[in-house]
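Why this split exists: single-chain examples teach little about how molecules sit against one another. For that reason, every record in the complexes split bundles all components of an assembly together and asks for one structure covering all of them. Below is a record exactly as it appears in the raw files.
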Amino acid sequence: MKRDPVVIIVVAMVVSLMLVFGFNMARKSKNNSVPGPQTKGDTAPDFTLQSLDGKNTRLSDFRGQAVLLNFWATWCAPCKIEMPWFVELQKQYGPQGFQIVGVAMDDASAKEIADFAKEMGVNYPVLVGNNSVGDAYGGVQFLPENFYIDRNGKLVARAFGLKSRSEIEDEIKAIIASKVTVLK
Amino acid sequence: MPSIVARTILSISLLAALLRAQEPPGKKFPSVTMTPVPVASVTRGKANTVELQFHVSSGFHVNSNKPSAEYLIPTTLKLDVPTDIVLGRITYPEGQQMSFAFAPDEKLSVYSGEFDLTVMVRPLASVLPGKYVFRGELKYQACDNAACYPPKKLPVQFEVKVVKSPPPATKNPAQSPHIHN
């Protein structure tokens, strides 16, 4: 059977374009992919940070509790919206082994962060964050960013930006329901 | 032959689609850019204004120079000034009062889209005419409808051409009403 060279050339061009498109999309997705623990079941990276009263606090200190790790900053307006919800949710679910841990990613001083937290009525530990911990959690490129961690220190969910109170509460219920399977 | 070609094209299409499906949810990040400024002529010994235009990427806003709350980071321009040129006032536009999904009852003073700043410069009378470069940075902090991004600094640079002030107009002596031969 005679092969039409024009058809072959057109097919080759189409195939090449598709391959180039696919390769570029794959490369772009790699460059834009969100780093840090993002898959359910990933172990949340442990860290040590100072609390506002100067005590060294490790994330693993809360192993056995369901943890909402909240990255925020004093200059973040949406963060200010969810803080009062966190205060209420901490009161409500704390007795069930739930703990919110705030990490302030601020240029502000510890005193300014403490004053802000006091003004907001924060009733959970607030730690002074740094770039190293931010990087371990994917760079924390925008705020608020919340990580829901089960009682075994495993990531259950990750939320970018402000979510509704009901969405937050649903995630909290999910991590509270987790059982401890790894002994401390 | 045609069915082989069709199957090949279909396979490649499916592969390309699969690669795209693997892409995690894209996240756009805010940016502020400055429109290049043509060289502005400024007269020595006088106050002159230079306009700088900035653009906030679509879907984002930055706090204005006078945000509605103390804890918000304002947009500010800082400039290093060439010797013998005095930097006067930097005039910022008024922010748009906008509310967002994360605080529907609260109005925030923000810039979005294009916004212009005016810089007053006054070269001293002794400055040599010629081109001079101003360098500095615009500090801003951007948010979208649900999240805020860390403060950033945009490098700013523009040139001015210092020119001599025109000579004062000479006053013509009064014309004598008499005809002189």
